[in-house]
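Worked problem 6 (solution included).
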Amino acid sequence: MCRLRITLLAAAVVASACATLPPPTGPLSTFASTAASPPPRAVLDSITAADLLRHIEVLASDKFEGRAPGTAGEDLTVAYLTEQFRHMGLKPGNPDGSYVQDVPLVGIDGTPTMSLAVGGKAMQLEYRKDFVATTARFVPRVDVKKSELVFVGYGVQAPEYDWDDYKGLDVKGKTLVMLINDPAIPDPKHPDQLDPQMFRGKAMT
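Solution. The predicted structure is:
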């Protein structure tokens, strides 16, 4: 278990675009305490595409390493956003006087193994090359032993399209094998295109 410092990255990028403004004083400081009021025109006009791009280029740069939790990129991101808050004149909101909050974070880093048996012959699969596996269960070990595989097409139940990949199948206690995305149904009038009347064509439904 480790600690993760949480910030609202997207909101901070937008907020930090206002960093060209001086610290809130007078009417602007009043606005800061009355969130229900519409923002002054000066605030809206100060948010420009150029400013947004400048912050995005910094946060998306190789130096920030993807900003993943628990990495040096996260430290750089938090420091950058904190500095933008200070530059804007925003005061820390935490009781300890900081801009960030510690919350528990659990990382699951297991070493999965898998074998496949067909016709009495077993084949050991190589992790990351032949398969990937993960779990969201916070337990020391997860075992799925001698589970029968059942192919269920795309695993879709869609009465609105008169489609049921599970019809007539007994899947209780078994491992389901399914295709990703939606069923690819050709358009009757244009066979080289997907039918927009079925699963919204190219859309991910």
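Discussion: Strands lie at 2-6, 101-105, 114-118, 121-125, 149-151, 157-158, 163-164, 175-177.
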